[in-house]
């Protein structure tokens, strides 16, 4: 058993009885393997008197050798933003729907853990984005995103106007419901629904996908991950827009605000079962193998 995986941290989706039941089983399994256990606050809430240390981020990631996230892709996205700076590997147990990221199924986790703790697993390094919102050259908000940074309209049916530059070079003026800026990981999320291409997770690339553009020739574009992307909100005082990170963090925008998006230097260390096949996941989740 690799020494790297002696101290295991558990993170759970909040308010889900299935998560509580799974955590109980996982803890019993980890105890049988004589491993040390740490609980995130979200996991600790399922127990009246937790028998294990309860830590917040980033201390949890700094002390753990492996983080197991119980829930779905949304839970893993939230954990990834908080843990990427600590360089701790993350493994997802999927209790959600699609499970592109959290790909260990509940009925296979025992055997999967046996292989992983024996050193039989695949490790991927997934890029994240970091975005800053500048208003009058001052940063008023910032966040990371594993899937995407989305600039979109807010509460109104009217389109918004955006101006985009890549490495200070003008790309386009866009009248649309918004713009998705996604990582390869996020290419299977909102960007896919917007008509964007599927990017292999190992690519060093960023995809920009217009949301319902006024001009149909505004198509998705893929740029190098080293690019600096700046999106400026155009329009008058009645323009209502916001920026969303992984669909979980929202910041309101004013006309003139600039959203500066770059690749985050740190990456997420994501573990998969030994025989993980990205293309098989795509076939299963997107139902490519089904006959019409």
Total of DSSP H or I helical runs spanning 4+ residues: 7
> What value does the Rg take, in angstroms?
20 Å
Q: In order across it, which strands form the biggest sheet?
A: 8-7-18-15-10-11
Share of helix among residues?
10-25%
- The chain-level structural class is alpha+beta
Q: Kindly, what is the distance between the CA atoms of the first and last residues, rounded to a whole number of angstroms?
A: 46 Å
Query: Mean pLDDT, nearest integer?
Result: 93
Give a count of the beta strands, DSSP E runs of length 2 or more: 19
Q: Name the poorly predicted regions.
A: none
What is the global morphology? globular
Q: Tell me the series of helices and strands, N- to C-terminal.
A: EHEHEHEHEHEEEEEEEHEEEEEEEH
Determine the strand fraction and express it as a percent band.
Answer: 35-45%
Largest sheet: 6 strands, antiparallel
């Amino acid at each position: 058993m690799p020494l790297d995986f002696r101290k295991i941290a558990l993170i759970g989706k909040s308010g889900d009885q299935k998560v509580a039941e799974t955590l109980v089983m996982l803890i019993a399994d980890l105890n049988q393997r004589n491993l040390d256990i740490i609980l995130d606050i979200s996991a600790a809430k399922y127990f009246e008197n937790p028998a294990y240390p309860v830590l917040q981020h980033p201390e949890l990631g700094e002390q753990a050798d492996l983080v197991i996230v119980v829930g779905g892709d949304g839970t893993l996205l939230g954990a990834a933003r908080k843990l990427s700076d600590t360089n701790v590997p993350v493994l997802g147990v999927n209790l959600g729907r699609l499970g592109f990221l959290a790909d260990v199924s509940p009925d296979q986790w025992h055997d999967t853990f046996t292989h992983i703790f024996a050193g039989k697993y695949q490790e991927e390094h997934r890029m994240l984005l970091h975005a800053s919102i500048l208003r009058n050259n001052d940063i008023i908000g910032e966040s990371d995103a594993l899937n995407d940074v989305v600039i979109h309209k807010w509460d109104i049916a009217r389109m918004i106007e955006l101006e985009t530059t890549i490495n200070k070079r003008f790309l386009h003026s866009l009248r649309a419901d918004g713009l998705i800026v996604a990582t390869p990981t996020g290419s299977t999320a909102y960007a896919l629904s917007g008509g964007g291409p599927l990017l292999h997770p190992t690519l060093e690339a960023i995809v920009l996908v217009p949301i319902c553009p006024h001009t149909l020739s505004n198509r998705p574009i893929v740029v190098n991950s080293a690019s600096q992307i700046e999106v400026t909100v155009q329009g008058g005082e009645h323009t209502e827009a916001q920026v969303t990170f992984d669909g979980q963090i929202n910041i309101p925008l004013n006309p003139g605000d600039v959203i500066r998006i770059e690749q985050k230097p740190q990456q997420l260390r994501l573990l998969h079962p030994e025989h993980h096949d990205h293309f098989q996941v795509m076939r299963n989740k997107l139902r490519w193998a089904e006959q019409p």
